[in-house]
Amino acid sequence: MIQRLKKRWLDWLLILAFALGLHYLAMALHLLMESGSFSFGQLGSLIAGRLMEPGDATRYIDVAQHGYVTQGENMINLVFYPLYPLLMRWLGWLTFSLPLAGVIISHVGYGIASILLYELILLDGDRRQAWDGVLLMALYPFSMFALGVFTEGLFLALSIGCLYALRKRNFLAAGIVGFLAAMTRTQGMLLFFPAVYEWVTLRFGPKKEKLHWRNAFLLLIPVGFGVYLCINAALWGNCFQFLKFEAGEPWYQSTQWVGANIAQHFSMGQNYPGLAWIIYYAQIVLYFWVLAVLAYGVYKKERMAYLLYGGVYLGFSYLSGWMISGGRYMLCCVPVYIILAKLKDGPARRFLLLGAGMLFVLYSLLYLRGYAIM
Question: Which candidate, 322, 276, 265, 312, places its Cα nearest to that of 291?
Fold first, then answer.
């Protein structure tokens, strides 16, 4: 028992070193290519410049510092869910730096997510498959976002944690973690779909397990989204005020059918060729790639709860009009890693890992060089 526990801890430490180290190797490569040298001072400047400032990072920092406001230009920051900036605020009291607090939360979240993904795949597979899952998530071309002042690292930990708890039929833990996920991102409420499926199969399956009071904790997942709606109502008198802000400048987000959005991405790629393969065409390729992986999962009879979550996650994410962050959003489509991790050792698996590695290096370097990768 002690030897097995030691081995488990060793695996976890190796996972943390690998998952985080891979990204820092990309940063070191960037510095060597840019200046021909590497130092920890340069690395610190790179982290401050590329992990703490780009995109919406400054808006998360503003919410952490001032909360939601109802006047001025920052009132539109209501579109950002409360858990991540709240954790930044609390940790900021210790670090005396909100950006640093955000980076620490993301690093810890991504590290925990990598360990949980390993353990989740290990429940139905072997160690090689579990390691492949961790490797594929680390090599996802846009995975650098998981370490910066964005919600990806935290959301990955919470969503995988919820799926792990559901797989173990621990509905109490699944409800609590799912509640936190729904307080982190809109897609968090989608965890309610696999949660209901797992409960239904348990309740009406062959064993027909009796109702238990712990099952009611699954309702905490939509409650998390409800809390965010209550914040909207308390501040603006409208539960869906965040949708009005999303529809305006600078996001111009509206709900459109997936087909219309795909056509729009293609049109934007033609109009802005410099951004085509960084944003617009990349989002189109990602959509059909994830769709194909989920279809392969159906063929291989993957667990229906994972397929259900992957399907609703993909469909919901691509309902967003004028989407420019599809690559970042799909980082958290966890079922893709679970399905692909179970490829048999052979040419297809090796080609997948090689292709993922090449794209990871390419998009990581583009991101670190300041290209408009959202």
Answer: 312
